[in-house]
Amino acid sequence: MLPCPEPSVRHPPKWVFASLLLLLAELGCCSPPTYQWRDAETKEQVTCQQCPPGTFVARHCTRDRPTACEPCPELHYTHYWNYLEKCRYCNVICGERQVEVQQCNATHNRACQCQQGYHAEQEFCVRHAECPPGSGVVKLGSPLENTQCRPCSQGSFSSSSSSTEPCRAHQDCARLGKATNVPGNQYHNALCTSCRLGGSNSTRGPAAGDEDCEQAVIDFVAYQNIPLRKLKRLQQILERAPRKQLLETKAVAQEKLRAILTHRRQGNKAVTKELLEALRAIKLHSIEEKVRERFLL
């Protein structure tokens, strides 16, 4: 006797299940959410439909009557489907250094955030931090986050405090057809010159008093490794000002000295002579000699 063949079972393809699940999801999303309520007249437990955002339950449903919803009054809202008997009050008030980014309406409470240049810290808006000289901004501050800084890597610099500026690359003096007068570091750019330097034949030899040479001397002296105390004394002699106890870093003092000397150069062609005398007065003889040798003075 021949064995009976086993009945073949045909399984529906997988796409049929996917389509069925999608259909069920669509049906579910289109059906308003419900809640359980006890009918005050019949004392029966009934299933009521919730009210959509922007409305509230003016009258709960009964066995014979659906839920009655009404719009939220002014300055009130409901953000979700709900069965609240009154809308929520728009209770958010923008504080100091905040701006309104969402008006109060029927579906949303008022929303505030810190104004430009500030970020939220606990319950206050605090000004974005500035990255100090030698560091640059890697991520700008936002209403929620402070500025993020990082020390300038080799070949880049930042010479001032800023909450927006990243580190910048040093200029390439050779590509500009000039000599490097002062190598760059993380606090200042590389400074170039066309002035003939001692031991160098690659640049032109300008006439005495050439403005480029005057500026080259200023740059060279300003960024020498001078102790901060003597750096400040040098500023005081050049400004002819009384001694002041200012809290500043060496990088800031160097930038200030360079600015003072550059300003004096614009109105006084003898700034190099004046600078050499000031160096001698505070006993910075080694730097005076370097300047004379480097610039053939």
Helix segment tally: 6
Number of strands: 16
Beta content: 15-25%
How far apart the termini lie comes to 124 Å
What's the Cα radius of gyration?
Answer: 38 Å
Q: Tell me about the biggest sheet?
A: 2 strands, antiparallel
Strand order of the largest sheet: 1-2
Average pLDDT score: 86
What is the general shape? rod-shaped
Percentage of helical residues?
A: 25-40%
Structural class of the helix and strand makeup? alpha+beta
Low-confidence stretches: 1-12, 14-28, 201-209
* Count of domains: 3
Disulfide bonds: 72-87, 94-112
InterPro entries: TNFR/NGFR_Cys_rich_reg, TNFRSF6B_N, TNFRSF_decoy_receptor
Protein name: TNF6B factor
Domain TNFR-Cys: 71-112
Describe this structure in words.
By secondary structure, the protein is of the alpha+beta class. The protein folds into 3 domains: 34-89, Tumor Necrosis Factor Receptor, subunit A, domain 2, CATH 2.10.50; 116-169, Ribbon (Tumor Necrosis Factor Receptor, subunit A, domain 2), CATH 2.10.50.10; 172-197 and 210-295, no CATH class. Helix content is 27%, strand content 20%. It contains 6 helices and 16 strands. Strands 1-2 form a two-stranded antiparallel sheet. A two-stranded antiparallel ribbon has the order 3-4. A hairpin with an 8-residue loop joins strand 11 and strand 12 (148-151). Helix 2 packs antiparallel against helix 4 and helix 3 (228-239) runs parallel beside helix 4. The protein is rod-shaped.
